Amino acid sequence: MKSLIFQTASKYLLPLLLLFSVFILLRGHYLPGGGFVGGLMAAIAFILHSFAFGLKETRSIVRLNPRYLMPIGLALSIMAAVSPWLVNLPVMTGLWYDEPIKLIGMVGSALVFDIGVYLVVIGSTLTIMFSITDTI
Amino acid sequence: MSNIWIVLPILFQLTSAVLLLFFWNYIKIQKILSALLSLLGLGISLVLFKEVYNEGLLVTQSGNWSAPFGISFVADTFGTTMVLLASVAGLAVSVFASASMTKARLQFGFYPMLHFLIMGLQGAFLTGDIFNLYVWFEVIIISSFVLITIGGKKAQLEGAIKYVALNLLASVFFLIGIAFLYGLTGSLNMADLALKVQEIDNKGLINVTASLFLVAFGIKSAVFPLYFWLPASYHTPPPAVAAIFGGLLTKVGVYAMVRTFTLIFVGDEFLSVILSVMAALTILSGGLGAMVHQHLGKIFGYFIICHIGFMMAGVGMMTELAIMGTVFYLVHDIVVKTNLFMVSGIVLKINGTQNIKELGGMYQNYPLLSLLMAIPLFSLVGIPPLSGFWAKLFFIQGGLESNEYLLIAFIVLGSFLTLWVIAKVWAEVFWKKGENLPKKARGIYFRELGRRQKLALILPVVFLSIISLYIGLGAENIVSLSERIAKELMNPEAYIEAVMSKKLNAL
C-alpha cells in the first residue's frame, strides 16, 4: 500500500506499539495482559509496518529470522519452569525477587516464563504472516 | 516431595524439540541429534521406571500448590510403564525415519514435531489432573495434525481432514465431560474426583458424564461405532509417521479409558455392559475389515481396531485378571504395532507398493529379512511363545472367571481372524512367486540405499523384535509387572492417598 499517510503513521506506530506491548507484557501477572497478548501486539506492529513498506523493508528491521524466536522463547520458558529445581521446589513454582524493581515491579520466574511466551507468539505469528505474504 | 524425575521425561522431550528447532535447516544434524536425544530420553524413562518400581508411587505438585488445587503429576507403575514404551517407540521411529522419510518431508520440521508428540504422550501418562490430561491430548493431536499432513500429498490431505474433524469432535466431547464433572464435584484432580464422585447421589448424571468420556476416548482409540477415521487416514502418511500413530496414539485413548474407569467411574453395571458390547463389535468389525483389504497399511489399520477391541474387553470385564490382560496386551501391542508399520514401510521401500496382490517373493529375495519380519507378524497373532499369546490367555481366564462366555467367543474369533489374515499376508507377500514390478520414477528403492541407510531401516525393527521376543519369552517379568499394575488400578486407595497426601478412612 503506497499511501503517504499510512506510511508516515506506521513509522511512528511501530515503536509506540512495541513499547505498549512491553507494557502489556509487564502488567500481565495480576491484571489483564501478559506474554500472549503482548506478543500479538508486537507482531501486529511489525505486520502493520510490512503492509506500509513491504515485506523486504520489515525483514531488514527484524534481521533475525522470526522462526528462531520460537525456540529461543521456548528455551526461556523451560528455564523459568525448571529453575525451582535449583532450590529444591517442585517444577513451575513461582520464585520471586523480594524487592520490587522500579518501573518493572516484582520480578520473578513467572516474568521470565511470560517473556518466553511473548517471544514464541511474536515468532510464530510473524512466521505465519511472512510465509503467507511470500506466497501471494 | 519434589522429585525431579517425575516430570523430567516430559521436559526432556520438550527441550529436545526446542534444540531441534534451532537446527531447522540442518537435516543431517537433526537426524543424529534426534536419535541421540531419543536414546537419552529412553534412559531417563528407564530411571523413572526403576525408581517407581522400587520405591512405589511418586507424586509432585507442580507450582507447589497442594493437591486438589494445583496440577499433580503422578508416576505410578502403569504411567511409567507407558512412558517407557512411548520412549522405546519414539527411539525406533526416530531412527527409522532418518532413512525412510524423504528430505522434502524432513525439511518441514518432522523431528521437532515427533518430539512434541512424544512429550504430549509422556504428559498424558504422567498427569494426575483430568483437565491437564485434556491439554496433553491437545498437544498430541496438534502435533499429529502436523505429522499427518507433512508432505502435503492429495491423499494425505484427504485422510488428514477426516482425522482432524473426528479428533476435534472427540476433544469437544471430552471437554463437555470435564465441564459436567467440574459442575458436579467442583474438582479436576483425578484423585480428588475419585472421592467426590462416589458421594454424589444422582447416578444418572454420573452415567451421562461417563458416557461422554467413553465417546471421547472411544473416538481417540477407534472403537466400534467410532473408528471410521482410522482406516481412512492411517495408510496415507509415510510409514514412519504411521508407525508412531499406530503404535501409540490409539493406545493413549485406551490408557485414558483404563485410568478413568478404574479411578473415577468405578464399578458401574451399565458402563460395563456397554464397554463389553462395544468391545465385541470392535473385534468383529476390525477383523472383518482386515480380511477384505489388499493394502498392507489398511490391513494393519484394521488390526489396530480389532486389537483395541481386546483391550476394551478387558476394561469391560473389570476384574483384576482382565485388567492384567489389558495391561499386558497394551505393552505387547505398542511394540508390535509400531514394528508392523515399520515392516510395511520396508516392504514399500523394497517393492514400491503395498498391495499384497502385486507383492511377492520376499522370502526368496530377502530370506533373513523375512524371518525378522515374521517376528512381529506372528507375535501379533499370538502364536506361543510369542508375546500376543499370554495376554489372550489372561483375557480368556478373566472371562471364564466372570462368566462372560460371549466375550470370550469374540476374543477367540478375533484371534482366528487375525491368524487368517496374517497367514494370507505371509503367503501373498513372502511365499508367493514375485512378479517383476515396473519401477516407479519417484522414490528411492531399498537396494539403491547406502549401507548406513539400510541399517537405519532394519535396526529399529530388530530392536523392537528383540523387545517383542523378550515380552514373549521372559513373560514372567511382564506378567508380574502387569499383575502389579492391575492390583494398583483395582485398589486406587494408595494412589489417592499419595496424591491428596492424607490418609483415607475406609472407602
Task: Write a concise keyword list for the protein shown above.
heterodimer; A: 136 residues; mainly alpha; 5 helices; 68% helix; 0% strand; elongated; B: 507 residues; two-stranded antiparallel ribbon; 21 helices; 2 strands; 76% helix; Na+/H+ antiporter subunit B (chain A); transmembrane (chain A)
3D structure, described in words:
The complex is a heterodimer of chains A (136) and B (507). With 136 residues, chain A is mostly helical. Chain A has one domain (4-135). Chain A is built from five helices and no strands. In chain A, α4 runs antiparallel to α5. Chain A starts with a helix and ends with a helix. The mean pLDDT of chain A is 88. Chain B is globular and about 70 Å long. In chain B, α14 (320-351) packs antiparallel against α19 (451-473). The mean pLDDT of chain B is 88. Chain B has helices spanning 8-22, 27-55, 77-100, 103-106, 110-126, 130-149, 154-185, 190-199, 203-221, 229-233, 239-263, 269-292, 296-317, 320-351, 362-365, 367-381, 388-401, 405-431, 451-473, 475-490, 493-500, and strands at 58-62, 71-75. The two termini of chain B are 26 Å apart. In chain B, a hairpin with an 8-residue loop joins β1 (58-62) and β2 (71-75). The A-B interface holds A 67-68, 70-71, 74-75, 78, 81-82, 84-85, 88-94 and B 1-2, 4, 7, 11, 14-15, 17-19, 21-22, 24, 60-64. Chain A: Belongs to the CPA3 antiporters (TC 2.A.63) subunit B family.
